[in-house]
Design a protein that fits this description.
The complex is a heterodimer of chains A (261) and B (536). Chain A is α/β, with parallel strands linked by helices. Chain A has seven helices and ten strands. Helices cover 33% and strands 25% of the residues of chain A. In chain A, helix 3 packs across helix 4. The mean pLDDT of chain A is 90. About 3% of the residues of chain B have low confidence. Classes of the chains: A alpha/beta (261), B mainly alpha (536).
Chain lengths: 261, 536
């Protein structure tokens, strides 16, 4: 039984100028310890699905189950990394992580220690008392990841986490994310990433779900059979074969794809 | 349902006018309305001309701006109502009490209440012009009149409209006082709606007459907003859309009565945002403190020079201890009113965020409540509270309530505006990490609202000090009731025609306002703005 089940989920926006079907009958499962990627062009509803899993958005049809229980709102077992970092600008890096720890039954001292340890783990030692405005984009997202890990979730959701960063920084952070996922002794070990970059999906995921827009729907599922660590294969034909296969699917659905180096 | 409500409203109006027609003044209402409108209109045109001239100068010539902006800022902080008896004294003595002198004095007071949002709108508009417009006009040699006509004026159009809407709002508020004033045991009056209202409550004590006056103002304001400002503002929105591609016009919420209300209110909010944006306040504060100080000292020297050197005011001794005590009393009342306003504003922000459906109801209520000049219904308030409580206590409560109405709207409008642009991420965060209750207030709501709260607070305290002048001193049926404070001291000085004391009180009040701006708000705002939420 999958850890998370998305069952016949649909979403319709009811508006004055008529109803808009934004998600049409989407079903899939997310297995425990799996790294899943959802790719598709903008407007295909991929982020909406992620937000529904997080309990931040709700389907108008169908249901989503986490550990066999329907999702009715945010749950501690599922955490999220945001596209625009979503850091509180008036709190320091440490305070931003503490926000997630506050509801835990720990002493103030323990929480402080935990926050510091998390920031250290993400390579932010010495930046605990810096405000987001004093951090680079990559560092901001590292704080975002540390905060997401603070609740010790089973599942980590990543909503286009690197799309507002430059290519060099994105590469570093992708390595970081893989390192966290590979660490089997610590949670979380089920990852779901939403991205519009096919290469990113192929680099990270065990399985890629392909979506198309108008209405948002699932059009294919591609298993990625490339040995890990994947960074050793990024220039090999097996990597490009996978990328080509997904891009072909997208092109067949009439979606323009962009070549990424 | 709606038709019935309108019918009932019209019937009520007929009854009010019928009852009020028992007084001969009521027959002159259309004439009064015309006189008041004319007074406001002429003042507005002067304000517009002055605002464009000074504003363009201040915004385009840096050296001029370094003097003009602090000067305008200081003049704006001086409680307008305090100006009036003094201006009246000078102008009446010059024109020997002629109607022309009175009109001039009235227009001067209106000018000091209407000018600021226009001139600051002009400056804000020019300062936020996209730099590519300037580059483009240089490349194509668009200069002089052509630059003004094709580049500058269209760019600042939305800001000027926004400023004008606010200017008319405060104009309506103050026109009520300017048309009927007691100074030095004499009553000076000008024909107009303000005169009508004040006669109603002070001479006749007639509720029907008061209601007829209020209804007339309400109808005029309503139709002016609909027929003039709303249309101009809709056009201004298009300008804004063309200028900043980040700006997307709000989607029309559809047809129907309530939908139109919401549309109209959205455009009012846009207007308020145009002039009262925290970032714009910051821009003003970016001018060096030394400049502010030097300009303030210069201004003080000019005032002292004019009044004591030229007009030769007799210098009487002042009871400094008494003065400090009065300031303390007024300040305490204002502080109470302020903290109630602050709590209400934060509660409104919380409510709208938690229950978005309440937003429209809150905005409609606020807009209506705010547009009724509080000065007009103060006598009624006073009557109620002095009946329930001992007179002094009743006076205190009525005074604090009136101050509250002078402060609350600035805070609430700023909060609504901030909540309107609330980033989705913060909402997600509070859900995802279960941030609620006190933690939500401390970590999210209050810090996120801080720039808006500070901006609102600056305006609120300005409005509050103005309100002290009308709320600590009531003259009903030739009987004077006062509670100790700077406001009542000012009123007593103007009753006694003691210009020297009037001037000192005015300076004390202004110094308090300016000191609070530079010691508290300036600091809070610059701190808040270094860690500000960015909307993607």
């Amino acid at each position: 039984m999958p850890l998370i089940r998305i069952e016949q989920v649909g979403k319709t926006f009811y508006g004055a100028k008529g109803d808009l079907l934004s998600l049409d009958n989407v079903s899939f499962g997310i297995e425990d310890t799996e790294f899943l990627a959802i790719v598709g062009p903008s407007g295909c509803g991929k982020s909406t699905i992620l937000r529904m899993i997080a309990g931040l958005d709700f389907p108008t049809k169908g249901r989503i189950y986490f550990q066999d229980k329907p999702i009715r709102g945010p749950v501690p077992g599922i955490s999220m990394v945001f596209q625009n970092f979503a850091l509180l600008p008036w709190e320091t890096a440490k305070e931003n992580v503490l926000i997630a720890l506050d509801t835990k039954a720990m002493s103030r001292q323990e929480k402080e220690e935990a926050a510091k340890a998390l920031l250290k783990k993400l390579g932010l030692e010495g930046f605990e008392n810096n405000y987001p405005s004093e951090l680079s984009g990559g560092m901001k997202q590292r704080v975002g990841i540390a905060r997401a890990l603070a609740v010790a979730p089973d599942v980590l959701l990543l909503d286009e986490p690197f799309s507002s960063l430059d290519e060099v920084t994105s590469k570093e952070l992708r390595k970081e994310v893989l390192r966290i996922w590979n660490n089997r002794t610590e949670h979380p070990d089920t990852f779901v990433i939403v991205t519009h970059l096919v290469e990113e999906a192929v680099l990270l995921a065990d399985r890629v779900l392909v979506m198309a827009p108008r209405p948002g729907r699932m059009i294919a599922e591609v298993k990625i059979d490339i040995p890990r660590p994947r960074f050793d294969y990024v220039r090999s034909s097996i990597f490009f074969d996978h990328v080509d296969r997904i891009e072909e699917i997208l092109e067949k659905a009439g979606i323009e794809t962009i070549e990424h180096v | 349902m709606l038709g019935l409500a309108i019918l009932a409203f019209v019937a009520l109006l007929v009854i009010i006018y019928q009852k009020a027609s028992a007084y001969s003044e009521t027959r002159l209402l259309p004439y009064y309305a015309l006189r008041t409108l004319l007074r406001l209109g002429i003042t507005y045109i002067i304000c517009l001309a002055f605002g464009l001239g000074i504003g363009i100068l201040a915004a385009t010539k840096e050296r001029a701006g370094n003097i003009i902006i602090p000067l305008l800022d200081i003049l704006q902080s001086v409680p307008v109502l305090g100006f009036f008896p003094l201006a009246l004294a000078v102008i009446i003595s010059t024109f020997h009490g002629s109607t022309f002198g009175l009109e001039l004095a009235s227009m001067f007071l209106l000018f000091t209440s209407m000018e600021w949002s226009i001139v600051f709108g002009v400056i804000a508009g020019i300062k936020s012009m996209p730099s590519y417009l300037k580059d483009m006009s240089q490349v194509f040699h668009i200069e002089g009149w052509d630059y003004l006509k094709h580049i500058l004026l269209p760019s600042i159009y939305p800001y000027v409209i926004a400023g004008s809407i606010l200017a008319w709002g405060s104009g309506w508020y103050f026109v009520i006082v300017t048309e009927y004033i007691n100074y030095g045991n004499k009553t000076y009056s000008l024909p107009g709606l303000g005169y009508y209202l004040q006669t109603a409550s002070f001479r006749y004590g007639s509720v029907w007459m008061s209601l007829a006056g209020l209804a007339t103002i309400g109808i005029i304001v309503f139709f002016m907003n609909r027929l003039i400002w709303h249309r101009l503002n809709e056009r201004a929105k298009e300008h804004r859309f063309l200028l900043f591609h980040g700006f997307t016009p709000r989607e029309s919420t559809g047809q129907g009565f309530w939908a139109r209300q919401v549309n109209y209110i959205d455009s009012r909010l846009d207007a308020i945002q145009g002039v009262h944006l925290p970032s714009w306040f910051l821009l003003r504060f970016r001018i060096r403190r030394l400049n502010y100080f030097l300009v303030a000292v210069g201004l003080l020297m000019v005032v002292v020079g004019v009044f004591y050197g030229w007009i030769r005011l007799p210098i009487t001794s002042l009871d400094l201890e008494h003065l400090a005590r009065d300031a303390g009393y007024s300040f305490s009342r204002l502080a109470i009113a302020y903290f109630i306003s602050l709590a209400l504003a934060i509660a409104v922000g919380y409510l709208i965020l938690q229950r978005p459906a309440t937003k429209n109801a809150i905005v409609i209520f606020t807009d209506v409540a705010q547009s009724i000049p509080a000065l007009a219904y103060f006598p009624l308030l006073w009557l109620i509270f002095t009946r329930i409580f001992p007179v002094q206590t009743g006076l205190e409560i009525a005074a604090v309530l009136l101050m509250l109405t002078g402060m609350l709207w600035y805070l609430i409008f700023n909060v609504i505006e901030a909540v309107e642009h609330w980033p989705k991420e913060v909402k997600d965060l509070s859900g995802l990490f279960n941030v609620q209750g006190v933690r939500y207030l401390r970590h999210m709501l209050i810090p996120a609202l801080l720039p808006a709260l500070v901006t609102g607070s600056i305006l609120a305290w300005g409005g509050g000090w103005n309100a002290t002048i009308v709320s600590e001193y009531v003259n009903i049926g030739n009987k004077v009731h006062t509670i100790p404070g700077l406001g009542s001291a000012l009123d007593e000085a103007s009753q006694a025609g003691n210009n020297h004391e009037l001037l000192v009180l005015l300076i004390v009040m202004s110094v308090i306002v300016i000191a609070m701006n530079s010691l508290i708000w300036r600091r809070l705002l610059s701190r808040a703005s270094t860690h500000v939420l960015e909307e993607e």
